[in-house]
């Protein structure tokens, strides 16, 4: 090659043009010590509430996995180790905000008022699991990253209608590689949308490690190209994630537009119950990650503040277990929906011209009944 | 353009199909505040064909939004807006560029109501000029309506006259479910016809019988309707009386009207410009063959584009069906009878 | 897994369909250096179904590439690689996630040869597990082969047995044009059958007649072949002799084999699990109705999924065609005859 | 809204994380003065060659528009005012590089060895216009931004095969909003691909101005999120664009991966012959932009270096006119391809099962011939 034998090209004609910087937010270190002053929102009561919800989230999670393992539920994506992420989001959202979740947001979902039994129903293969929850919130989104353009659309609607809420969307680290992610950040910047994007960077997209998704050192810096604000937070620090969302909300209100928050977490479990993470990562790595997990850290902080005792822990664990068991009972008692329900919500007004389909289904059912 | 909406008495206007689209958009944006328009170049430029001309001036940039260049985004934004009580009418600049929007159409627009058991709905319209024959560059002549028609939960509508463009577009915007509205650009600027700008919508699942006849049923939609009517003229000179049906609402498909017609004529020719195989014509042919089994005097014929890409425009006439092709197909029906 | 390729004598292996896919990939990567594999989780993880298991260990990460999570990218990278003399075999993790790849399939993969008059070609394979019935979450059960079949310049291939998976995948990789290769995941881990790992490819435009019969022709592909064979058994107990055809190569379509069969049996039932309307079954029904017009004793019947989304898995059995449905359709053929 | 009545959130718990900077490259100012030392590649001969090609490009362009206006060609996208961009690319590319163009690259195309008459043939609606040119180069790409994933694939192929070339792809400012753009930059970063992306930021995507595409002040900064190098250049300075590509090539060779170059240009003409730019921008703006255009600037520089005279200018203009006229004649003499050619290149091996299509076409042709 010609160019190689040439002397190295000098960087001539260059002038500085722009400079950018990124920050990271963290309050609690991995040992539960405060790295800086406790922010005003993080009252004693707030900290205990956050802690209790994170524990509930984890208890729910392990029960859901058990249900799947015993054939009582379908494939399930555990949120083990990512409880601070979901809890902070659920607590930071206001009633009228639009929440646009992905599939690993059980913690946030529960705080949005979804019935626990409905979450199980959804993962049990029943559409009715998505019928509850706030009217404006989106259902669980499976096609990666598509939810973020919906969130941008919802944010645009809020802006068009002159409403003051935000649209908050979650997405995985893998999801940040897909075009929708970028197109949405980009329009959020161009249109100054009240959009908050929170990335659950749990280091893996199924088996694909974070560094194969992207060559950049952080995902937060993807905000720069879209002209929106980006920030990284310790995603295992529930106080930090909450603080980042508060700041993002304020930015939206001041019409400074959207924010990308990269929350650093780790997926302690398998990708889903259909996955076997030991194929692609070492036990050693997972063991290290356990040292960072969010619940222990907050528990230590609570202990140090004298806000939480071993007795409270035991009582709360038991209460969570009971609440989850009750939800499981409710779930298991829900009969499957009718076969015809597959048509009930296809169009609002049933097109008469489609009646043949109903006849075909009726015939099929008749055959299935007469074994 | 909008002042006339202030008037109590609806005005009659001489319109091309393109102007009828514009008129319907003006009407509905005027009467329903939740209607918003978005897409590439739909604002200041009024769309590359001028379908959205005047909207931004009348309704402001908050309701008429030039988007960044990204069709997946346009579709996804529409889903998001529709979920929050708006009625987005999005434009895809040419149907050849609709593919990035497909994931949102198939995975979300058509499913949101079903997925949430009615909690969240998706009353959006995706408009796109479609079809060939205007000597445009590559990718500007696609007619892939079959792909969308196969998609559950979505309606597909194709007008073939100014009045049907007006009435069907109003219906599409008002429909509580997602509609893909394909505008045959070959006849965008065809004959001007009188339209009463009275906001009257047309039904979204009914064929239009444009001409009654007794010997053969010609079924088509979009720009090919012009060729089909021309063929019907030629046939009538030969003493063959052709019924002409404009399918117009591709999905859901009003097969009953077509079956009734073929049951009485006994012969059927389907005309479309999309590639022949796995297209909308196949579904119609399959259903008519099945349901008119005892009435058919000859096999159902299809006159279509070929199973290849629309050639670049120097040769596009070799690809597009024309009235001679239709007459020849009818002749085959009579020979084989 | 790869050592046996060093051996001069081809080994016979007991394989599931999934293992046959894996075997064919090993064989071809071993014999053709230009074959590369890419997709989400295809490397270290060996694919979520393990179809690419062992490839990275054997052929290295340069030829077995985990991509970032982006299906448009996977398809576009493949077009780019294919243009430069590689033979990419890309995986889309589930067919429900193929939509972002569609612009590259329709606008580029299928057109590159035609567009450049043969200067640049696109010998790529896009593999995807497809179809329902494995109790998977939403979007993991799609069978939208019709959309791809309507796309000019692309081949669509669907195996229904380990041997056909092996032979057709080899053919797909060797074919100088783009092939979408859909693997019916419901039968991925079905019966193990003997395969001779001899690198022998199967033709890419020929149906397979799995069973000969005289009274009715049953036409299907993919996982529904199992139900169809089951129905043929049930029919034979009733004294009805059914011919069973596995279409296998959906596009281009070997309609001749099907016509020859129906011309002799006089009856035809087409079985697929995709939504009924505007699907592959419509094209086959249309052509058979046309070309067997004088031979048909009864209207062609279709046994299909419904024009709605695959219900979540608790109710998926109400959507999927089964052998009883097929037998009932055959019964209708005899009643109406 | 609750959050609004709260006191502003303080930015607590923040730590600096990363810093980034961007540069701009420019050698010649708008008046043709050197802003810094002339780089070594820019010999007298090089400058004259660049100038001559830019003039040829412009003459070709105006002839092509005339052909369209007189009904002898189809819709055509003029490269008026963007001649430095195409010329620098064409000159910087080496024979075995892979060039992946978009539709406004006439200047570069001509330097790649495409016959001028073939370019006209393409825009005249004839596929044979894309049959010539280097084997590995891509044909003109119409679906916006799709070409960039092909370029990433081609770059990956070069890397897999251990070849030292680069893949260079062009794209418009509008194209930088589409998912493909970002997905390709992202994989180029993750895989360290020898990819050079050159954005022709001509300030408009049809009618949509640059600031509606993206809220960020530069497009070059979109490189940051992908972890690749980004730089802005004065796209009307042929020396600067060339320099940026040389540096990018070197970066690719040193396995530091990909580069995004944002070239600042202005589309002086309509988007295409089907467009009327006066609908969406002022004459005043265009008049201002003419002051920046690339040819005059280089001409002045050549005059100052005594490398170009009025006589040379006149002779060269005439020579260009003749060359273009000759190409036009060649183009106009090419008969349309056969109808059957629509099938000739559909598959390499014609599938027998498709013979019915040939029969149908034969029938159709017979009917068209017997009027
Ligand atoms: C468009 C699309 N492609 C592929 C998949 C299959 N898939 C499901 S989850 C997943 C990985 C997602 O990783 P990430 O975004 O990091 O989220 P996480 O699951 O780690 O929380 C993939 C590839 C999908 N659901 N959607
Ligand atoms: C996917 C896609 N969407 C829309 C179009 C229609 N279209 C053609 S050119 C263009 C604008 C492109 O602008 P830009 O990328 O800035 O390039 P420029 O034409 O200004 O050089 C549009 C929207 C297209 N060709 N492809
Ligand atoms: Mg992840
Ligand atoms: Mg531009």
What does this protein look like?
The complex is a heterotetramer, with two copies of chain A (371 residues) and two copies of chain B (337 residues). Chain A is α/β, with parallel strands linked by helices and 371 residues long. Chain A has two domains: 23-30 and 40-337, Thiamin diphosphate (ThDP)-binding fold, Pyr/PP domains (Rossmann fold); 342-371. Chain A is 46% helix and 12% strand. Chain A is built from 15 helices and eight strands. Chain A has a six-stranded parallel sheet with strand order 1-7-8-4-3-2, sandwiched between helices. A two-stranded antiparallel sheet of chain A has the order 5-6. Chain A is globular. Chain B has helices spanning 17-31, 55-59, 71-83, 102-109, 112-115, 145-149, 162-174, 224-237, 255-265, 280-291, 323-336, and strands spanning 12-15, 35-39, 64-66, 87-91, 125-130, 155-157, 179-184, 193-196, 208-211, 216-220, 242-246, 249-251, 268-275, 301-305. In chain B, the strands form three sheets. Chain B has a seven-stranded mixed sheet, with helices on both faces. In chain B, helix 10 (280-291) links the parallel strand 13 and strand 14. Chain B is globular. The N and C termini of chain B lie far apart (54 Å). Chains in contact: A-B, A-C, A-D, B-C, B-D, C-D. Chains A and D meet through helix 1, strand 1, helix 7, helix 8 and helix 9 of A and helix 1, strand 1, helix 7, helix 8 and helix 9 of D. Strand 1 (14-25) of chain A pairs antiparallel with strand 1 of chain D, so a sheet runs across the interface. The complex binds thiamine diphosphate (2 copies) and magnesium ion (MG) (2 copies). One thiamine diphosphate sits between chains A (104, 142-144, 172-175, 200, 202, 204-206, 267, 271) and C (40, 69, 71, 93, 97).
């Amino acid at each position: 090659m010609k160019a190689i034998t040439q002397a190295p090209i000098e960087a001539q004609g260059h002038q500085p043009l722009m400079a950018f910087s990124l920050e990271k937010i963290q309050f609690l270190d991995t040992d539960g010590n405060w790295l800086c002053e406790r922010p005003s929102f993080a009252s004693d009561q707030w900290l205990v509430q956050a802690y209790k919800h994170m524990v509930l989230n984890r208890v729910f999670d392990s029960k859901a996995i058990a249900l799947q393992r015993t054939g009582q539920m379908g494939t399930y994506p555990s949120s083990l180790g990512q409880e601070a992420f979901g809890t902070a989001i659920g607590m930071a959202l206001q009633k009228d905000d639009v929440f646009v979740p992905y599939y690993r947001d059980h913690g946030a979902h529960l705080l949005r008022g979804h019935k626990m039994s409905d979450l199980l129903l959804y993962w049990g293969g029943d559409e009715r699991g998505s019928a509850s929850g706030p009217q404006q919130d989106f259902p669980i989104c499976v096609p990666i990253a598509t939810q973020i353009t919906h969130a941008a659309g919802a944010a645009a609607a809020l802006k068009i209608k002159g409403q003051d809420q935000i649209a908050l969307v979650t997405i995985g680290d893998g999801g940040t590689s897909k075009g929708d992610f970028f197109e949405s950040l980009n329009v959020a910047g161009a249109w100054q949308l009240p959009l908050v994007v929170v990335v659950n960077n749990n280091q893996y997209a199924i088996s694909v490690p974070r560094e194969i998704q992207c060559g950049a050192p952080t995902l937060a810096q993807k905000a720069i190209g879209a002209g929106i604000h980006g920030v990284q937070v310790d995603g295992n620090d529930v106080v930090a994630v909450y603080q980042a969302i508060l700041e993002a909300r304020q930015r939206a209100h001041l019409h400074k537009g959207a924010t990308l928050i990269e929350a650093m977490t780790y997926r302690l479990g398998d990708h889903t119950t259909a996955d076997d993470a030991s194929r692609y990562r070492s036990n050693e790595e997972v063991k290290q990650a356990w040292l960072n997990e969010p619940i222990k850290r907050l528990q230590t902080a609570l202990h140090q503040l004298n806000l939480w005792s071993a007795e409270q822990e035991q009582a709360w664990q038991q209460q969570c277990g009971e609440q989850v068991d009750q939800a499981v009972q409710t779930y298991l008692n829900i009969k499957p929906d009718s076969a015809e329900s597959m048509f009930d919500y296809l169009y609002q007004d049933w097109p008469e011209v489609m009646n043949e389909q109903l006849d075909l289904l009726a015939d099929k059912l008749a055959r299935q009944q007469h074994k | 353009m909008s002042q006339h909406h202030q008037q109590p008495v609806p005005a009659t206007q001489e319109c091309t199909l393109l102007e009828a689209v514009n008129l319907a958009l003006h009407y509905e944006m005027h009467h329903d505040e939740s209607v918003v328009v978005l897409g590439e170049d739909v604002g200041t430029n009024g769309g590359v064909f001028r379908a959205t001309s005047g909207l931004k001036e009348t309704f402001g940039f908050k309701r008429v939004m030039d988007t960044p260049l990204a069709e997946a985004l346009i579709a996804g934004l529409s889903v998001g807006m529709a979920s929050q009580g708006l009625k987005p009418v999005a434009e895809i600049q040419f149907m050849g560029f609709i593919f990035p929007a497909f994931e949102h159409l198939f995975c979300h627009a058509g499913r949101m109501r079903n997925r949430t058991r009615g909690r969240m709905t998706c009353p959006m319209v995706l408009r796109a000029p479609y079809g060939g024959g205007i000597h445009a560059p590559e990718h500007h002549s696609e007619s892939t309506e079959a792909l969308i028609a196969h998609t559950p939960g979505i309606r597909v509508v194709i007008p073939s006259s100014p009045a049907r463009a007006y009435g069907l577009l109003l219906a599409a915007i008002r429909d509580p479910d997602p509609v893909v509205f394909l505008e045959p650009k070959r006849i965008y600027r065809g004959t001007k016809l009188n339209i009463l700008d009275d906001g009257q919508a047309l039904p979204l699942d009914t064929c239009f019988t444009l001409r009654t006849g007794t010997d053969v049923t010609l079924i088509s939609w979009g720009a090919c309707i012009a060729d089909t009517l021309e063929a019907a003229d030629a046939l009538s000179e030969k003493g063959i009386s052709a019924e002409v049906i404009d399918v117009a609402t591709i999905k859901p498909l009003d097969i009953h009207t077509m079956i009734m017609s073929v049951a009485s004529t006994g012969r059927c020719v389907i005309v479309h410009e999309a590639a022949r195989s796995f297209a909308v014509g196949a579904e119609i042919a399959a259903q008519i063959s099945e349901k008119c089994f005892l009435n058919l005097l000859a096999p159902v014929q299809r006159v279509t584009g070929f199973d290849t890409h629309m050639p670049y425009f120097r040769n596009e006439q070799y690809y597009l069906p024309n009235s001679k092709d239709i007459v020849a197909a009818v002749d085959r029906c009579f020979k084989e009878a």
